[in-house]
Write a structure and sequence with these properties.
single chain, alpha/beta, Rossmann fold, 2 domains, 8-stranded mixed sheet, 7-stranded mixed sheet, 14 helices, 15 strands, 17% strand, globular
């Protein structure tokens, strides 16, 4: 198979979908790998490193799309690429279609085979290709919150961990999944007063067992959220509904009760965000204000640490990419039910039910 590794074009996005080590393994399996020129520079990988392991360096994305049986990105397909897609071509990347009607229609119109990293799902509900970026985003969310609490950044001037004799910041984390637990680890490590909320009592029991004493667990309800948010210096939105839009849990009325200069980070923004006020921002212009509260809604948080993120992403995605290339997408999906759940669009049809529901589009059950 001819596999194309595209350069990311989203604002301030420096990750790449495959490292030279990954390319070497793909070539070992007998596949041709086309890497767009300079695709790896932002993650610290030169064109020469890719060439040495057998990749062909291609000058433009147009050539990559034209020559590749499967194209790989990190972020979603953007409007300038829609016309480059073709029938039967495999697209393997993060798509996040539930909040993106335009991209969904473009993929359907092209009749490509669109497999989303974020909906590949193992038995038990674990999302193996979303997990590494959720780990990065969770940890980054606390770094960014700590920065924006500083007064020169517009915050309240609160040190997240406090000092002896001065209370630490109160950090509220909504959601106890991969993002939430990684946010909590970082916040607890810095000495913050952490509260993590979830709707699953068993998950809260687990968190109670593994988290340190400065992390409290609270059962989520609108009432408990309203009470907790009044006292928070930092709120992390870490809610995930796999493949579907995130529920809007934090209302503008709740935000109006928060302290001036507090910080909110919506890690769920790729799926539409879990704050009523959320709208996507970029690393170039990461924040906006509502009721004197800082809102950080960057849609590609891990892109700020591309070296770490690219290495972590390739570790997770490479076995699936090799399976698709070795077997063809139909056989690979038939043999791996987890990978089959990654298929979102095929032959002009929307085959992922949660996306179809959220976008009010016809759903076609998977048939391969």
């Amino acid at each position: 198979m001819r596999v194309g590794i595209l350069k990311e074009i989203k604002s301030q996005e420096n990750r790449v979908s495959m490292t030279p080590a990954g390319v070497e393994q793909m070539v070992f399996h007998g596949h041709t790998v086309l890497v767009e020129k300079d695709a790896g520079l932002g993650s610290g990988f030169s064109n020469e490193e890719y060439s040495r392991v057998g990749a062909q360096i291609i000058n433009t994305s147009q050539e990559i799309f034209a020559q590749s049986d499967m194209v790989m990105h990190v972020k979603e397909i953007l409007p300038s690429e829609y016309s480059l897609l073709r029938e039967g071509q495999i697209v393997f990347t993060y798509l996040h279609l539930a909040a993106d009607m335009e991209q969904t229609q473009a993929l359907m119109n092209s009749k490509c085979v669109a497999i989303a990293y974020e909906t590949v799902e193992l038995p038990g509900g674990r999302l193996p290709l979303l997990q590494p970026m959720s780990e990065v985003a969770g940890r980054m969310s606390i770094q960014e919150a700590a920065k924006y609490l500083e007064m020169p950044q517009g915050g309240s001037g609160t040190l997240i961990g406090g000092v002896p004799g001065v209370a630490p910041a109160k950090v509220l984390i909504i959601g106890g999944g991969v993002v939430g637990i990684n946010s909590a680890k970082m916040a607890c490590g810095l000495g913050a007063d952490v509260t993590i909320m979830d709707i699953n009592l068993e998950r809260l029991r687990y968190l109670s067992d593994i988290m340190p004493a400065n992390c409290k667990q609270v059962m989520f309800s609108p009432w408990s959220l309203r009470e907790e948010i009044k006292h928070a210096d930092v709120v992390i939105g870490a809610v995930l509904a796999a493949g579907a839009k995130a529920p809007k849990l934090v209302t503008n009325d709740m935000i109006a009760t928060m302290k001036k200069g507090s910080v909110m980070v919506d890690v769920a923004i790729d799926q539409g965000g879990c704050f009523e006020s959320s709208r996507p921002t970029t690393h170039k212009e990461p924040i906006f204000y509502l009721h004197d509260v800082i809102q950080y809604c960057v849609a590609n948080i891990p892109g700020a640490v591309p070296r770490t993120s690219t290495l972590a992403l390739t570790n997770a995605t490479l076995p699936y990419a090799i399976a698709i290339a070795d077997k063809g997408w139909k056989k690979a999906l038939k043999e791996d039910p987890a990978l089959a759940k990654g298929l979102n669009v095929c032959d002009g049809k929307l085959v992922y039910e949660a996306v179809a529901h959220d976008l009010n589009l016809p759903y076609t059950p998977l048939d391969i």
